Amino acid sequence: EAQVTQNPRYLITVTGKKLTVTCSQNMNHEYMSWYRQDPGLGLRQIYYSMNVEVTDKGDVPEGYKVSRKEKRNFPLILESPSPNQTSLYFCASSKGRGYEQYFGPGTRLTVT
Amino acid sequence: LAKTTQPISMDSYEGQEVNITCSHNNIATNDYITWYQQFPSQGPRFIIQGYKTKVTNEVASLFIPADRKSSTLSLPRVSLSDTAVYYCPGMDTGRRALTFGSGTRLQVQP
Prior knowledge:
The complex is a heterodimer of chains A (112) and B (110). By secondary structure, chain A is mostly beta strands. Chain A has strands at residues 4-7, 10-13, 19-25, 31-38, 42-51, 54-57, 65-66, 76-78, 87-94, 102-103, 107-111. Chain A is built from no helices and 11 strands. Chain B has a 5-stranded mixed β-sheet, with no helix packed on it. The chains are: A mainly beta (112), B mainly beta (110). The A-B interface holds A 4, 31, 33, 35, 40-45, 48, 50, 56, 58-59, 88, 90, 92, 96-98, 100-106, 108 and B 30-32, 34, 36, 41-46, 49, 87, 91, 95-103.
């Protein structure tokens, strides 16, 4: 089954404790991205990757890092999480620009 | 940046046809128009895509006029399970990224 998986689905952590949210897709997609969703602000792109070792900033990259060492995986790293990063995070993948995006189930992160 | 504009919310009743319109004022010549549906605490799900005129699938129809500056998502005979947020994202050509706004919150009443 074609899918995008994210782990963990829920995470409660404390300020400053490094964390990684994993994202994996099994569709051999080149394009992957991370979004955060906050009430009233819609979905905002954090980072994106057009292929292995090619990543770039989205609308709200501050406080986040990503890497793309393998085509299927695109982890999101918060090296020093802060309460304003409390949000619902989605990973997505697609064949490329203009193609249908497949979204993961989401990761609800709470930073206290 | 191709930003889109759509109503914040709409209400309907079961069995009615719902039409949600989106304006695409800065759409690029080569870009397709896509619509997504999102249920609470789930990721958005692709519904339909078109370039111009009319496209229909098992879920919805999409109407795009010749100037492509707007699109209308048509949901025939909605049910309670169609209550969701519907997005018509624009395209940031530079980043090759979909830009989602806040979408249209559709509430279907019994």
